[in-house]
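ok here's Malate dehydrogenase:
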Amino acid sequence: MNKVAVIGSGNVGATTVQRLAELNIADIVMVDIVEGLPQGKALDILQAAPLMGYDVDVKGTNDYADIAGSDVVVITAGIARKPGMSRDDLLATNIKITQQICASIEQYAPDAIIMTVTNPLDIITYAALRCTQFDRNKVFGMSGLLDSSRFASFIAKELNCSVKDVCAMVLGGHGDSMVPLPEYSTVSGVPLSKLMDEATIERIVNRTINAGAEIVAYMKSGSAFYAPSAAIATMVESILNDTKRIVPASAFLNGEYGQHDICLGVPVKLGKNGVEEIIELELTKQEMEALQRSADAVREGISKIRS
Ligand code: LMR
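and the structure:
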């Protein structure tokens, strides 16, 4: 049986554990420093197994030694932003948490693939890569798939069509500078520009960019977790089942898209070795410039963790 460790038992962590359990593809261990919380939530999820028909072990723990043997470790721990804050405002706190977690992963699960979810996503992913010194294909962030799912859901709603026929793509950092790509977004193969006017596309693009903040503003305390956990589960499944889905993720770039020494959202092929390939899309000059602005914003954050 495969094994997945989920670090953090807040909304994102616990919902991720539930979704993974329901996929029935791995034993799961949920780790948190808060005593009792991961144990209680894991037990609750385990007790739903007879009703939901999954047959995997779900364990909650405060002891990192329990992540030993994990194929994938998902880092969700850290604080969430409040209305009016940017994701970058979380850096000072979340970087320390991430560094401690990475030291434990190195110690107990040195062969694992690490998926980061904690914000600011691209900077945290870069930090996790640098802390652990794992190969670049084994450390990446969940970001673009969430943003693309949001983009796709807004497109389907606007056109009153099934989301199943929508394919949407968002590149760049998981922040205000993300780059939704209408030209690479289609409904049954038909590009958006043939289906809606420019003003509508712009409205949907802006809503996608602000989608996380829209939910934070509604919730006042805490941030989205249903769509994020769905994106995490999709990516974990592609790794464990070696499905080789091509999805956008924050990956370490070494020349791809003209970028070096940075983690940024780009389409990747996800399989049993983690990021097995980085897919280079042909971008227009305007799209390249937008991606460069996004990379510059991420780089500014990275320079803070270096200093
Ligand atoms: C999201 O996009 O939902 C997350 O990055 C959380 C946030 O702060 O918006």
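+1. The mean pLDDT is 97.
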